[in-house]
Amino acid sequence: MEKTLVLIKPDAVEQNIIGNIISLYEEANLKVIALKMEKVSRETAETHYKEHKGKVFYQELIDFITRSPICALILEGENCIAKVREINGATKPEEQKPGTIRKKYAKGITENCVHASDSLESSKREIKIWFPNFKGE
Ligand code: CMP
């Protein structure tokens, strides 16, 4: 079964909406199969966001994701990579549809509440970063 990695980011944890966000995934028939909270180290943040290194927003992104605890989860379900990205909403604020998590709760392009893997390849890479002991491809 397809899996994806989700991060509920510091701004969402600070807003007390972890439960609201997870409910939206569960209502879409996706199953939480792993979950943890942690304050992210710069090393883990840099590994996770390595494809963005050198971009103008990189430093702001690393500072933000490391500022206070996040909640990391693995979700499982049919077509879950695409489903979760639909539920989360677009990265660009002007493209976010009503009802998506980002449209409802995000403060901007950096403080955007959630991250989710964008492909099968990135879900495998990201699950290894956040849940190195997770077994079950
Ligand atoms: P996320 O889904 O976690 O993946 C990469 C993050 O980079 C993205 O959410 C945004 O928070 C951030 N990001 C992407 N594009 C921009 C941009 N143009 N300006 C600032 N931040 C960006």
Could you characterize the architecture of this molecule?
The active site is at residue 115. Its cofactor is Mg(2+). Homotetramer. The protein is α+β, with helices and mostly antiparallel strands. 40% of the residues lie in helices and 18% in strands. The radius of gyration is 14 Å and the shape is globular. The chain starts with a strand and ends in a 7-residue tail after the last helix. The site of adenosine-3',5'-cyclic-monophosphate has 8 residues, from loops.
With strands numbered from the N-terminus, the spatial order across the biggest sheet is 2-3-1-4
SSE series:
EHHEHHEHHEH
Radius of gyration: 14 Å
The CATH level-2 architecture is identified as 2-Layer Sandwich
Q: Strand count, sense and closure of the main sheet?
A: 4 strands, antiparallel
CATH superfamily: Nucleoside diphosphate kinase-like domain
**First CA to last CA: what distance?**
8 Å
CATH topology group: Alpha-Beta Plaits
What portion of the residues fall into strands of 2 or more residues? 15-25%
Spell out the key features of this protein.
7 helices; 137 residues; 40% helix; 4-stranded antiparallel beta sheet; alpha+beta; 4 strands; globular; 18% strand; binds adenosine-3',5'-cyclic-monophosphate; Alpha-Beta Plaits; ATP-binding; magnesium; nucleotide-binding
